[in-house]
Design a protein that fits this description.
The structure holds 2 protein chains of 2 kinds.
Chain A (H helix, E strand, L loop, with lengths): L2 H13 L2 H23 L4 H17 L1 H14 L3 E5 L2 H14 L4 E4 L3 H5 L2 H7 L3 E4 L2 H8 L16 H12 L8 H18 L2 E4 L3 E3 L4 E6 L3 H5 L5 E7 L3 E2 L5 H12 L7 E5 L13 E7 L3 H6 L14 H5 L1 H6 L10 H12 L1 H4 L11 H5 L6 H14 L5 H14 L2 H20 L11 H4 L12 H10 L9
Parallel strand pairs in A: 1-10, 2-3, 2-4, 4-7, 5-8, 7-10
Antiparallel strand pairs in A: 5-6, 6-9
Chain B lengths: L5 H13 L13 H4 L6 H12 L2 E5 L4 H12 L8 E3 L3 H6 L11 E3 L11 E5 L2 E3 L4 E5 L7 H4 L2 E7 L3 E2 L2 H11 L5 E5 L4 E2 L7 E2 L6 E7 L1
Parallel strand pairs in B: 1-12, 2-3, 2-4, 4-7, 5-8, 7-12
Antiparallel strand pairs in B: 5-6, 6-9, 10-11
Classes of the chains: A alpha/beta, B alpha/beta.
Chain lengths: 477, 217
């Protein structure tokens, strides 16, 4: 089955699961409340967004120079920097490091880039046990499913489902199903893994060019453990995550926290510059940074889309998106879901495979408004649609429908008459049996939804009636 | 020397081709200006932020700092399990812990002798700076090592009020100076936490359940 059909099917199934949607919406409403509070901590949130946009634009405008500077500083501290053109190159390099150190156990902290390059399956295939240590990632790994959301991977699961999973997979006692007990069970299960692993893999939130530092933001402390305890630490990151200077984090740390989780600042903001230094007593002996291109340099050259590389992966656009609220993260069938996924995936994974995602949007612009680095997300969705149609990926039925609508809308009389006919048809339809059944022509809509009652009059009629009472008539009528 | 790879040259060539003609931009103005409102009373604000992020803040003076630290350690190290406390080997901490009542002195491990281990019951460290705006504590590898401030279930920090800086901007200036020698720095804001299960806040996800700050005048 092709990716588009799969998306339609998974989306329709998720859209019909009202209970899961309510659960998801309640969680996202909590985020909305916290994020609004965190934004109020700024005297001028819109000025903060403007500055973030400017700093990112500067970083991207001179990406080569900043990356070289970053590399120079990391290498000076004894670290290694590898430039990976493709997902396969990144995987092979990391596998090579693991083999050289005879690593049998790898601990990982959250990294969407590692999902992008399918790192864990590659390590597992090479006989290297790879454990996700972020609580949400750990849960979805035990369920053998991908993250549901780029920041909160297990947000779709209820406590009871996680408790059952932990009983089955970790031998946790039944009845231990509070959030505290479940988090405690994961902490105990993972503590030994942290102490035993030979290699730790993390992502990066920012690469600081001037000082040559990798900045990692997290709440749990698992990324800190991954980068402190094992003999080898590998950072896998997209090469676009550069900020020119350390000073820029004075803005980006609170902005990322506000947009990502609604916190004033995230619990742990680590800066790592290399392996253990001679006078230091702990920390890894070897430090590698893998800079992944995988289509990013082509995006940089695309003037129209360059600003999509400014994304800091905060997840705000997912959290406010009515489509994400309805279908959730898994239905997208893509590493990055939500608006940013629909914008990026065709660039990273091909228009043929992901061109259809841009059509799953009401173009309401909530994503653009939420984006802390001011990526013009909904306009990028329109551009992706344009390109998909130009590449012959448009749907013929949709083309006919739009043309028919354009013809009707071109003439007010015609439009009025069509509306009247449609209202009458809908009224007739409602009294007939079999709504949502196999023979219902409106089945794509009605099989999971009730058809709303059609209004008795058109807007135009309603308006005329309302304005008829006062003597002064609207001359436009 | 970096790992030689042909991919590096090809990537760089593509990035160079896409590069803007304009020269590198000059450093921007400090970020706090205009984006954040000024802070009226730094100490009050710091207390409020600590309370909000669940840092346990004790204000001490020269007379009671040692007693307070001793009490906290006695509380953190349960008598039964024999778990040690890993302590940053710094003159001020040596002095504060000199008169610790037995059997606690036998359970101290100084950072000059051993790196923190999985058996840690507590860690005691200094800080590089404290941030008023967010109620945060900046540590580096100089503060007892990389893992000291994350592996133990209780992290106790001793710092002085003079280390308070109003904004992240100033803390990052301090961090820049530290980064010349330290391979890791961390800005810590409250104890470890997760909200991954039904968005409910749980403290002590993988790092410390308790973060205690002794702030000396």
């Amino acid at each position: 089955m092709n990716a588009e059909r799969q998306f339609r099917r998974a989306g329709a199934r998720a859209a019909a699961d009202a209970a899961r949607q309510d659960f998801l919406r309640a969680g996202l409403a909590g985020y909305g409340h916290a994020a609004a509070g965190a934004r109020r901590r700024f005297a001028d949130w819109s000025a903060a967004r403007d500055r973030c946009q400017e700093v990112k634009a500067e970083a991207l405008a001179h990406l080569d120079a900043y990356l070289l500077r970053f590399e120079e500083r990391v290498v000076a501290r004894g670290g290694h920097v590898f430039w990976a053109e493709t997902a396969a190159a990144a995987r092979d390099y990391i596998l090579g490091v693991a083999r050289r150190h005879g690593a049998r156990r790898v601990i990982k902290s959250k990294s969407m880039v590692s999902e992008e390059v399918r790192l864990t399956p590659a390590l597992e295939a090479a006989g290297i046990a790879t454990v996700e240590t972020d609580l949400g990632e750990f849960i979805v790994q035990l369920r053998r499913e991908p993250p549901f959301h780029i920041v909160t991977p297990a947000m779709h699961l209820r406590r009871g489902e996680i408790a059952a999973l932990f009983q089955r997979e970790l031998g946790a006692p039944p009845g231990a199903d509070s959030a505290e007990e479940l988090a405690g069970a994961a902490r105990r299960a993972l503590r030994d893994q942290f102490l035993a692993a030979e290699m730790g893999i993390t992502g990066a939130n920012f690469l600081i060019a001037e000082e040559g530092l990798v900045a990692i933001t997290e709440n749990e402390g698992n990324a800190r453990l991954c980068s402190s305890l094992p003999r080898v630490h590998v950072v896998l990151t997209g090469l676009e995550k550069v900020l020119p200077r350390l000073a820029d984090l004075g803005l980006f740390w609170p902005v990322l926290a506000a947009a990502g989780t609604g916190q004033p600042i995230t619990c742990y903001n680590s800066l790592i510059g290399g392996p253990r230094q001679p006078e230091e007593r702990d920390g890894p002996e070897e430090f590698h940074v893998v800079l992944l291109d995988n289509g990013r340099s082509a995006l940089l050259a695309d003037r129209e889309r360059r600003d999509t590389l400014a994304c800091i992966r905060c997840g705000a656009c997912l959290n406010v998106c009515p489509v994400f609220h309805t279908i959730g993260g898994h239905a997208y069938g893509a590493t990055y879901s939500g608006p940013i996924g629909a914008v990026l995936m065709p660039q990273l994974g091909g228009l043929e495979r992901f061109g259809h995602l841009a059509f799953a949007s009401s173009l309401c612009g909530a994503c653009t408004e939420a984006c802390p680095v001011k990526i013009d997300l909904h306009r990028h969705l329109i551009r992706n649609r344009r390109d998909a149609v130009a590449a012959g990926r448009g749907r013929r039925r949709e083309g006919w429908a739009v043309r028919a609508w354009a013809w009707l809308a071109a003439d007010p009389r015609r439009y009025q008459r069509a509306g009247a006919v449609l209202r009458r048809l809908l009224r007739v339809r409602r009294v007939l049996p079999g709504e949502g059944g196999m023979l219902d022509p409106l089945r794509p809509w009605t099989r999971a939804r009730a058809l709303p009652a059609p209004p008795a009059e058109s807007f135009r009629e309603w308006w005329r009636r309302r304005t008829a009472a006062p003597p002064a008539r609207d001359s436009h009528d | 020397m970096t790992d030689a790879n042909a991919g590096r040259e090809r990537i760089l060539a593509r990035l160079r081709a896409a590069r803007a003609a304009a020269p590198l931009a000059p450093p921007p103005a400090p970020h706090a200006a205009g984006v954040f409102a000024p802070i009226a009373d730094p100490l009050v604000r710091f207390q409020e932020e600590c309370a909000a992020n669940r840092t346990e803040l004790y204000q001490v003076d020269a007379a009671n700092a040692a007693t307070c630290l001793g009490d906290l350690l006695a509380q953190a190290l349960a008598p039964g399990d024999g778990a040690p406390a890993y302590v940053q080997d710094a003159p001020i901490l040596r002095r504060l812990l000199a008169a610790l009542p037995p059997p606690l002195p036998a359970r101290l491990r100084w950072s000059s002798e051993a790196a923190v281990g999985g058996d840690a019951g507590a860690a005691v460290t200094l800080a590089e700076a404290l941030v008023v705006r967010t109620g945060s504590i900046l540590v580096s590898t100089a503060c007892g090592g990389r893992a000291a401030s994350v592996l133990a279930p209780v992290h106790i920090v001793y710092a002085e009020a003079a280390q308070l800086v109003p904004e992240l901007d100033q803390a990052l200036v301090a961090a820049r100076a530290c980064a010349a020698a330290a391979s890791m720095l961390c800005l810590i804001t409250g104890p470890s936490r997760t909200s991954d299960i039904e968005k409910k806040l749980v403290l002590g996800a993988h790092g410390p359940r308790r973060l205690v700050l002794l702030l000396a005048r």
